[in-house]
Amino acid sequence: MTTDDGEGTDAGGVDWDARAATFDEEPDHGLRDPEVRAAWAARLKDWLPGRPGDVLDLGCGTGSLSLLAAEQGHRVTGVDRSPAMVQLARQKLAGRHAVFLTGDAARPPVDGERYDAVLVRHVLWTLPEPGRVLRRWRGLLRPGGRLVLVEGVWGTVSPVGIPVDRLTALLAPLTARVRVERLSGDPALWGREVDDERYAVVALRE
């Protein structure tokens, strides 16, 4: 997950280029644990189209979710602000039907391409004007395509993130076909028990 403001640096001043080498050490980033990897693979199989299609992974990081999508037969385009993350993603998916681009997730450099699914994990909450960004992402979908948004609210003293009610309200003008899955209760996804708000939203383009 990397976003805006300078090469490899997000709006909060996080230098994702510097963090790229250790990014995959988090269980839900690198998906190195077989149980965690299997949990994410099962969720993606449910969220993404049932037949092979074109998937745009925005804020793709080192490409762990991109790799799962590719293993399920999808053709993947990944976009990340951090050149170091993009390089690691290219290495991770070498030899597969995948392309990785350096760019802003809010304004993906995809030259008018359209996709069967736009996959975004832990990125939307960092972006200004999320409603406008969602409209832009919806415009990247083919008819019948879907947004797959994995988000949450983290922390107790100064929580950050986007609550599910706010996200579904932002999606309401774009589509009535929205499905929410609560993810906090599935420790296999995170490699541990969690008690904050974590969820996925699948929104279909009608």
Q: Could you write a compact summary of the structure shown?
A:
The chain has helices spanning 16-23, 27-30, 34-47, 64-71, 83-92, 130-138, 164-171; strands spanning 54-58, 75-80, 98-102, 115-121, 141-154, 160-161, 178-182, 197-204. The chain is α/β, with parallel strands linked by helices and 206 residues long. Residues 56-149 form the Methyltransferase type domain.
Instruction: Write down the overall geometry.
Output: globular
Task: Quickly count the helices.
Answer: 7
Distance between termini? 28 Å
Helix content: 25-40%
- Mean pLDDT metric: 92
pLDDT < 50 runs, ≥5 residues = 1-6
Strand runs, count: 8
Proportion of strand residues: 25-35%
Structural class of the secondary structure composition? alpha/beta
Q: Sheet bearing the most strands, described?
A: 8 strands, mixed
Over all CA atoms, what is the radius of gyration? Answer: 16 Å
Give the ordered list of helices and strands. HHHEHEHEEHEEHEE
Domain Methyltransferase type: 56-149
Keywords: Methyltransferase, Transferase
InterPro entries: Methyltransf_11, SAM-dependent_MTases_sf
Protein name: Class I SAM-dependent methyltransferase
Could you outline the blueprint of secondary structure elements for this entry?
Blueprint: H1 16-23, H2 27-30, H3 34-47, E1 54-58, H4 64-71, E2 75-80, H5 83-92, E3 98-102, E4 115-121, H6 130-138, E5 141-154, E6 160-161, H7 164-171, E7 178-182, E8 197-204
Parallel strand pairs: 1-2, 1-4, 2-3, 4-5
Antiparallel strand pairs: 5-6, 5-8, 7-8
